[in-house]
Every structure is written in structure tokens, then in C-alpha cells.
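Thread title: Can someone regenerate the structure for this chain?

I was given the following input by a collaborator and told the matching C-alpha cells would be attached. They weren't. Posting the sequence so someone can regenerate them.
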Amino acid sequence: MQNRTVVAAGVLGALLALGVVAGSFLMGGALVRFKMADRNVVVRGFAERNVEADLAIWPIVFQNTANDLTELQRLVDLHDAQIRGFLKAQGFEDGEISSMPPQITDRKTQPGMDPGVKLDERYMAQTAITLRSSKMGEVKVAMRKSGELVRKGIVLAQDYSLVPEFLFTKLDEIKPEMVAEATRSARAAAEQFAKDSGSRVGGIQRAEQGYFSIEDRDKGSPDHKKVRVVTTISYSLENH
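Best answer:
Regenerated them for you:
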């Protein structure tokens, strides 16, 4: 092992003499870029946190059909009230519940529809009631109980533009600690590289805080998030 270290140090020393050493590699989870001709090292430090979503947005989309608009509106109002009652029974308040105007479709006038075809129910309405709440536990329970709405005769529909969302809104609370952790990660990588190359870390030449990303931890757990940040720092390298 010692012989390998001596050989590696010798090769590195020869390249340093030529002033052409450049490249990148991973060290301790941080990306290291180096260019010995300029005597600096650029490192990227990483920090990650697993967090719980703190805000849920749940659009409940339902459909009604009828042969006249008066009856259609009656059904929309009935099912709107039933869904609101269901949500209140789960512990939610009026301020957490909102309704979108129904979208009415005249099926008889749809492209490709034969005017001579008799429809039992000419009109269709699609409506969405949206729950926006920070009561994460109650939201998940209500979602599991949504079958109760079906048993009441409510036709729940799927709309890919209105899907449940779980959000993490407290990023500012963890930003400083995560930036500090990413900076420590970058510094540790720079110091390790300097040690291996027979140098020491000097001052910071340039620092860039990368953007924060918030993603689902996995597809099956959208209420669990992974927060990540990357910090890029350029250090000068000095001889011992």
C-alpha cells in the first residue's frame, strides 16, 4: 500500500511540474474538479433532507348527467353539499374547502355525434371541490374513506389536470442548516484532495449556492419529500 502511495505521489508530482493536471472525480460524496495549472480546486458539496409534506391539495372531481339543465344543476348542488358534508365530518372547516364552477357539456353537439341518436341524458357536468389543508393525517384518512362518496351515488372522475398534491412549504426553515452542511461537505472534499496532492487549502476564490430541489421520495409516497442542495466552491491550493 505504501509503495502504491509513493508511486502515485511521484506521478502526480511529475504532472504538477508540467502544469497540465486537470480533471474531476468523486470524493466523499462531493464532486471535485481540479486544475493544477491554476493551483485551485473546485468542489461541490451536497446536503439532503427527508421531510414530510405539510400542505395537501386534494381536488375531488365528480360528474353528473341529466336530460335537462335544471335537473343537472340540482344534482350538482346535491352532490356538492354531500361532499362538503363528508369533508366536514372528517374535521375540515369551510375555509379549507372551495368549489370550481361546473363544466357543462352538451353531448348532442359533440363532434362526430349523429344528431339522430337519442340520448337518455343529454347534458354532463364535471365539477371539482378542492380541499386545501395542513392537516396531513386527516387528509390521508379522508382519502381512504372516499369510497363513502361512491356509496352515496356520487360518480368520482379522474382529471389529469386536477390531481392531489402534497407540498413542503417550510424550506426557509431548513435552508441555513442545509447550506452549512453542503459547505462543510465541500470543504472536507477540498481538504482531502489537498492532502492527497501534498498541498493545503487556501482561501475561497468563488462560491455559488445551487438551487434547492424538492422531489417525492418515491412514487408511492408523495407525502414524503427529499430536499437537496448543491454548493459549488473554488478554493486556492497552496504548498505546505
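The radius of gyration is 30 Å.
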